[in-house]
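Following up on my earlier thread - several people asked me to post the actual chain instead of describing it. Fair enough. Here it is, all 265 residues.
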Amino acid sequence: MILLAILLGTLFAGVGSVWVAAALSFGLLARYTQHMLSLAAGALLATAFMHLLPEAFESDIGPDHLFMTLLVGLVFFFMLDKAELWHHGHEHGDHGHNQPEGGGHDHGHSHGHSHASGGWAVLAGDSVHCFGDGVLIASAFMADLRLGVIASLAVLAHEVPHHMGDLMVLRSSTTDRQAALLKVSLAGSITALGGLLGFWLVEQLTGYLPYFLVVASSSFVYVALADLIPQLQKRLAARQTAAQIGWLLGGIFLVTLVSQLAHHH
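Reply from S.P.:
Thanks for posting it. Predicted structure:
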C-alpha cells in the first residue's frame, strides 16, 4: 500500500508539475516567449539559491564539502557544454570552413547551439533534483500517509516555476513543443525512481540528499548564468530593459513565494 502511494505521489509531483508548467508556458504565456527567458533565468537562480542550497546547508555535512560539490558541478556542466560544442563542430565542420570569420551565419549557428547544450545541462540537473524529490516524498509517506500527500503537493507546487524555466530553455533550441515536453517529463519521472529507491534505502540515501541538492543547484546556476543571462545582455530601449528586469525578478519572486508556502505547509 505504502509503495503504491509513493509511486503515485512521485509521478503526480514529478510529471504533473511538468504538465502544469507546459499548460502555462505553451498556453497562457506562449506569446511572451522572450519575457519567459527572463522569467526562466530568475526561476532557476531562485530555485538554486533560495530553495536547494539552503536546504543542503541545513544538513550536518561541512560547508567545505558542499562548496566543493558545487564547484565540481559547475566545472562538470561547463565541460559538458564544451563537449556538446566540440561534437557539434565536428558534425558540421564542413559547413563552417567556408564561412567568413565573424560572419552572421557562424554567429547564429553557435548562438543557437548554446541553447541545445544548456538544455542538456538543465535535464541532467533536473533529473538529479527530481531523484532527490522522490527520496523526500518516500520519506514523508513512510512517516505518515497524510504527510506524504502534503509533500507530493508541495513538490508539485514548487517545481512548476522552475519546470517553466526548463521548458523555455529547451524551446529556445527547438520549435518542437512535444519534444521539449517529453524530455522534461522524462526528467520529472525520475522522481518515481527516487521514490522507489527511497522506499528500500531511505536511511542510506537520506545522507546523500544534500549532495543531490547541490549538484542540481550547480546545473541551474550554470544554465542561468552561461546560457540565459547572456541572451538578455543586449542594448534595448528603457521600456524593454525594465520589462526584462521585471520578468527576471518575477521569476525569483514566484519561486521564493511558492517555496515559502510549501515549507509553511
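Residues 94-116 have pLDDT under 50 and may be disordered. That should answer part of your original question.
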